[in-house]
Specification:
7 strands, globular, alpha+beta, 10 helices, two-stranded antiparallel sheet, 5-stranded mixed beta sheet, Beta Polymerase, domain 2
């Protein structure tokens, strides 16, 4: 049975994308050694299509043995995941390009819990994302749980890192989180980058914050559009 956060994420994960993107994702899935659980589409091209841009796909495999390539590549994926590949796909006469990251379900799960210091997954997948190819119903449920796990961990840290006080709007928590996670990844983008990640998706972030805090068992108050974690829970 889905919890409130998972129910809120279903329409987003299943929202329509272009036929070309779905065709590309299906091609990626077919090229794997074994059918993966799913292919996620995220990033700047999801936020704003660009004919010259590069799509971002994340493939969740059943096991580490399902990573494409030889034994050395699979070992590399175990030691320093994820493996990242470049691929092209032609659809109706146009060539599309993509960056494809691959992780096993076990690796994804291990890197998205609240104790994980790897921000590259949970800070990425608390943002809008689409499940553009999925193996079956059970796989869809599992990937949904992974995304909800990312959102819950990200929301936990958004609250934990916020300055204590009377509270602030939901988007302010996310803005603060993204500014810190980009800094920890030593990215070159300016501090305005965190605001651009939120721009146009304010409703998404406002909706998921209290649902994720509730899922994490955190107490909070809400007044005049401002949220504050209860001190006894912090």
């Amino acid at each position: 049975m889905l919890d409130a956060l998972e129910k809120a994420l279903v329409p987003e994960l299943t929202a329509p994308v272009s036929v070309a993107v779905r065709s590309f994702a299906a091609s990626v899935a077919r090229g794997m050694p074994a059918p993966p659980l799913g292919v996620l589409f995220y990033g700047s091209m999801l936020r704003k299509a660009d004919p010259d841009g590069i799509l971002d796909f994340y493939v969740v495999t059943e096991t580490g043995r399902d990573v494409p390539g030889g034994a050395a590549i699979r070992v590399a994926n175990c030691l320093l995941p994820p493996n990242v590949f470049y691929s092209e796909h032609r659809y109706e006469g146009q060539v599309y390009r993509a960056k494809i990251a691959v992780l096993s379900r076990k690796q994804f799960m291990a890197r998205t819990g609240p104790r994980s210091t790897d921000t590259t997954l949970w800070a990425r997948f608390c943002q809008p994302v689409r499940l553009v190819w999925v193996r079956d119903v059970d796989a869809a449920d599992y990937v949904l749980n992974l995304i909800a796990r990312c959102v819950t961990t990200a929301a936990f840290w958004a609250g934990a890192l916020a300055v204590p006080g009377p509270g602030q709007p939901a988007v302010a928590y996310w803005d603060g989180l993204f500014a810190r996670t980009y800094g920890s990844e030593l990215r070159v983008e300016s501090s305005a980058r965190s605001k651009r990640l939120i721009e146009g998706a304010e409703e998404h972030f406002a909706q998921i914050l209290p649902l994720a805090w509730h899922r994490a068992g955190l107490g909070f108050t809400y007044k005049d559009t401002h949220y504050a974690l209860s001190l006894s829970e912090r």
